[in-house]
Amino acid sequence: MKGLAVTTVAEQAADALRRKIMSGELPEGMSLRQDALAAEFGISRIPVREALVQLEGEGLVKIVPHKGAVVSGLSIDEISELFMLRSLLEPVLLKKSAPRLTAEDYAELDAILAEYKVELHAQHTTRWGELNTRLHDVLLSRAEQPRTAAIVATLLQQTDRYTRMQLSLSADSIRQAQQEHEELVQLCRNGDVRGAASLLKRHIEHASKDLEQFILAQRKPAK
């Protein structure tokens, strides 16, 4: 990797590490050595330390005294709680946002859906989480409830890597996610706000259930 720019070095290092964690390139439990990261980014250890502190605040990194930083992993209960909070808050925002969505918003949603379909069929997993987050962001963008929106944005960020994992489970998961997103946008476009909110809640709960089953299977000790 080329050296990072002199300005906002810590932020750029945090962005680079965040992308690696979200994509799964840096898996749960992996040690993040400051000297190795500083060498990779071509910067000093101070901005690397600042970046790790920032990512700890986002729940992506855990800094252990006398041991250093590791990529954080969430328990099944913690993951389920994050998705549960999303299933409660996102429909509330959607009910307020959907009636205010503009023609420009729907044009953006259609573009996201089109790109999402291409990336899903091409199995480009690194784009799935980003497009999923963008679609949810646009759908909820007109709610005019900034505090709730900020909480949901954090929840989306914290569940992003798990959303990608859930989407990659099977072809059926991919098809269902695509179908639900398209139906969600159409319900909003048709003015069926209650139906859209109900579908959004089921969509999040379904993702959580599939993901929980997958993680339990992955973490089960080998016999």
TrEMBL record:
<dbReference type="InterPro" id="IPR011711">
    <property type="entry name" value="GntR_C"/>
</dbReference>
<keyword id="KW-0805">Transcription regulation</keyword>
<dbReference type="GO" id="GO:0003677">
    <property type="term" value="F:DNA binding"/>
</dbReference>
<feature type="domain" description="HTH gntR-type">
    <location>
        <begin position="7"/>
        <end position="74"/>
    </location>
</feature>
<dbReference type="Pfam" id="PF07729">
    <property type="entry name" value="FCD"/>
</dbReference>
<dbReference type="InterPro" id="IPR036388">
    <property type="entry name" value="WH-like_DNA-bd_sf"/>
</dbReference>
<keyword id="KW-0238">DNA-binding</keyword>
<dbReference type="GO" id="GO:0003700">
    <property type="term" value="F:DNA-binding transcription factor activity"/>
</dbReference>
<dbReference type="InterPro" id="IPR000524">
    <property type="entry name" value="Tscrpt_reg_HTH_GntR"/>
</dbReference>
<keyword id="KW-0804">Transcription</keyword>
<protein>
    <submittedName>
        <fullName>FCD domain-containing protein</fullName>
    </submittedName>
</protein>
<dbReference type="InterPro" id="IPR008920">
    <property type="entry name" value="TF_FadR/GntR_C"/>
</dbReference>
<dbReference type="Pfam" id="PF00392">
    <property type="entry name" value="GntR"/>
</dbReference>
<dbReference type="InterPro" id="IPR036390">
    <property type="entry name" value="WH_DNA-bd_sf"/>
</dbReference>
